[in-house]
């Protein structure tokens, strides 16, 4: 098993455990090898309760933004949620796209897919579905989505560039995405970068903000817009599980920035044609 496969298996196992817990249990649980005041998976989460379509049973507190709030979803849109978890963002998106639209949630973890399907069945939704799959190779056709959203998921994927290629493939020409994710400004300590458990906690899997935005541009997207940005502070009682006291002191002194960002970008429209020949 290569390193990428190993990291994916760590994510699958960790999020399978989380799928079996409710939000309160996640927030009260321990992270890493020692107990801490707040679970790392919930430090970055935002309040969904004022958004239409919110379902408490689908909210596991795993996000780092509110991408559906910024996603410009219209009635009748087909929306894909990458890393759909228990269905939280899917149900919010469904409230926006309405009965004439469709929402597809994709998640890597079978336990999460099962939980999301159960939540959808309770609500009697017929135009939302959940598919198990790797977002580096989405189980969807080309040019199928008007909008793609994702909340704190790409940082869990070893090859983020592959995901942006897949997003481009799955979007209709003129479609767009709104993605919330974790990025860095400055380098993490080596022990954090290499720790697989912290990778599953969204931090050591993050890349530099500039690199992240460059990947979006490099994959052909246009009108890239930073919709929201906020600084994330990881408490010492979490970091001490991964860093020595000296490393922790040095980490704070360097003031490495860990940020939650929400990014919007569009897939260009196909060239309009003039007669039998396409215009430049």
TrEMBL record:
CDD domains: AdoMet_MTases. It comes from the Bacteria. GO terms for molecular function: arsenite methyltransferase activity. It catalyses: arsenic triglutathione + [thioredoxin]-dithiol + S-adenosyl-L-methionine + 2 H2O = methylarsonous acid + [thioredoxin]-disulfide + 3 glutathione + S-adenosyl-L-homocysteine + H(+); arsenic triglutathione + 2 [thioredoxin]-dithiol + 2 S-adenosyl-L-methionine + H2O = dimethylarsinous acid + 2 [thioredoxin]-disulfide + 3 glutathione + 2 S-adenosyl-L-homocysteine + 2 H(+); arsenic triglutathione + 3 [thioredoxin]-dithiol + 3 S-adenosyl-L-methionine = trimethylarsine + 3 [thioredoxin]-disulfide + 3 glutathione + 3 S-adenosyl-L-homocysteine + 3 H(+). Residues 73-220 form the Methyltransferase domain. Its EC number is 2.1.1.137. GO terms for biological process: methylation. Keywords: Methyltransferase, S-adenosyl-L-methionine, Transferase. PANTHER family: ARSENITE METHYLTRANSFERASE. Belongs to the methyltransferase superfamily. Arsenite methyltransferase family. This is Arsenite methyltransferase. It comes from Candidatus Opimibacter skivensis.
């Amino acid at each position: 098993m290569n390193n990428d496969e190993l990291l994916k298996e760590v994510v699958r196992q960790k999020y399978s455990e989380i799928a079996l817990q409710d939000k309160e249990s996640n927030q009260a649980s321990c992270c890493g090898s020692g107990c801490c005041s707040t679970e790392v998976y919930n430090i970055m989460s935002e309040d969904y309760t004022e958004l239409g379509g919110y379902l408490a049973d689908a909210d596991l507190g795993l996000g780092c933004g509110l991408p559906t709030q910024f996603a410009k979803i219209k009635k009748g849109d087909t929306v894909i949620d990458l890393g759909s978890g228990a269905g939280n963002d899917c149900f919010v998106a469904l409230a926006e796209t309405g009965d004439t639209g469709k929402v597809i949630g994709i998640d890597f973890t079978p336990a999460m897919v099962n939980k999301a399907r159960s939540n959808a069945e309770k609500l009697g939704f017929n135009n939302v579905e959940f598919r198990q799959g790797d977002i580096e190779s989405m189980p969807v056709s080309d040019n199928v989505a008007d909008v793609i959203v994702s909340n704190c998921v790409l940082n869990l994927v070893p090859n983020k560039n592959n995901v942006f290629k897949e997003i481009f493939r799955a979007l209709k020409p003129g479609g767009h995405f709104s993605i919330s994710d974790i990025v860095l400004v400055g380098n993490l300590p080596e022990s954090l970068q290499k720790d697989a458990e912290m990778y599953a906690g969204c931090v050591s899997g993050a890349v530099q903000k500039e690199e992240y935005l460059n990947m979006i541009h490099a994959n052909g997207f246009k009108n890239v817009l930073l919709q929201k940005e906020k600084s994330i502070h990881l408490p010492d009682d979490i970091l001490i599980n991964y860093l020595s006291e000296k490393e922790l002191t040095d980490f704070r002194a360097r003031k490495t920035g860990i940020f939650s960002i929400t990014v919007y970008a569009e897939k260009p429209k196909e060239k309009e044609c003039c007669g039998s020949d396409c215009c430049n």
